[in-house]
């Protein structure tokens, strides 16, 4: 991709005034504005030249989440680190939809060697007055079965993370990544943030609610995704990240819908569809 196109962004506008922007790099949603408020966080220090996954927005983790010993891919896989093909916008009265595509032939040979499968990933982002829907369609173009993980790594913009609350995780088992991977059960009715949090909640109900802390809430509804990751880097991790401001942990919370605790198995020739809808309520 020529350098001048490396930060190319597709803009969506709905007749109601809601707006969204999606970067071709990683097909990463970088803005979602409803009633003049941008609900998506992107760091002021995010790299926007294709040299690194965009720090913020909704990067897509695929085909792995985190790192995997046996698969020599960078953390969270290759989908967020490559340019996707722009497949066009469709406008109808109720929603504006854009489509992007990523195939194995579009990713570097090194990544194809690490995860040697033929696939076609189509990603649609639809904007309505109050909602943003993201859907992944994955086709296994091999004859053999493959396994993968995927996750919509959504960074929400908040004014004070200590005032946010996540509702809907009660009684879910979770892996506490800041506690040596301890397996715990969520006992709180609402999850709050007052320190570093990095948890993989398993088998989560499809509708959960993020109370932003200023009176507004965002409903996060996932479809065909089992798990929810909640992440805030807090002080030390924020300082350690080169593409994240030292104080920015106060203004974001990641609530990430995915299937990451177990592999998803997709037989040759089959298609798998999953996604999330965010709605300002
Ligand atoms: O720095 P990255 O690769 O974008 O990852 C950010 C975070 O992403 C979260 O989803 C993970 O649970 C964290 O462990 C990780 O630190």
TrEMBL record:
Substrates-to-products reaction catalysed: alpha-D-glucose 6-phosphate = beta-D-glucose 6-phosphate
Coiled-coil portions: none
Enzyme class, first EC level, given as a word: isomerase
Pfam families tied to this protein: Aldose_epim
Alphabetically ordered keywords of this record: Isomerase
Active site: 153, 256
Ligand binding (substrate): 55, 75, 80
GO cellular component: cytoplasm
The protein's Enzyme Commission number: 5.1.3.15
Highest taxon in the source lineage: Eukaryota
Record family assignment: Belongs to the glucose-6-phosphate 1-epimerase family.
Name of the protein described by the UniProt record: Glucose-6-phosphate 1-epimerase
Lineage of origin: Eukaryota, Fungi, Fungi incertae sedis, Mucoromycota, Mucoromycotina
């Amino acid at each position: 991709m020529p350098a001048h196109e490396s930060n190319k962004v597709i803009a969506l506008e709905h007749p109601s005034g809601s707006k969204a922007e999606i970067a071709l790099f990683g097909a990463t949603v970088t803005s979602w504005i409803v009633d003049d408020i941008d609900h998506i966080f992107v760091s002021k220090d995010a790299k926007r030249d294709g040299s690194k996954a965009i720090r913020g927005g909704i990067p897509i983790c695929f085909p792995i989440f985190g790192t995997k010993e046996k698969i020599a891919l960078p953390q969270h896989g290759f989908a967020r680190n490559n340019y996707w093909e722009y497949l066009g916008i469709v406008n109808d009265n109720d929603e504006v939809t854009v489509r992007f595509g990523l195939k194995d032939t579009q990713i570097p040979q090194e990544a194809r060697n690490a995860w040697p499968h033929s696939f076609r990933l189509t990603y649609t982002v639809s904007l309505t007055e109050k909602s943003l829907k993201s859907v992944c369609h994955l086709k296994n173009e091999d004859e053999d079965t493959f396994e993968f993980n995927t996750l919509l790594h959504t960074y929400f913009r908040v004014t004070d993370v200590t005032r946010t609350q996540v509702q809907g995780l009660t009684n879910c088992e979770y892996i506490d990544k800041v506690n040596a991977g301890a397996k715990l059960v969520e006992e709180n009715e609402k999850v709050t943030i007052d320190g570093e949090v990095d948890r993989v909640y398993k088998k989560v109900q499809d509708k959960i609610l993020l109370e932003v802390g200023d009176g507004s809430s965002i409903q996060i509804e996932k479809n065909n995704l089992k798990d929810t990751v909640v992440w805030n880097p807090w002080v030390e991790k924020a300082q350690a990240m080169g593409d994240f401001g030292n104080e920015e942990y106060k203004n974001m919370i990641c609530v990430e819908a995915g299937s990451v605790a177990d592999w998803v198995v997709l037989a040759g020739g089959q298609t798998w569809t999953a996604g999330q809808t965010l709605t300002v309520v």
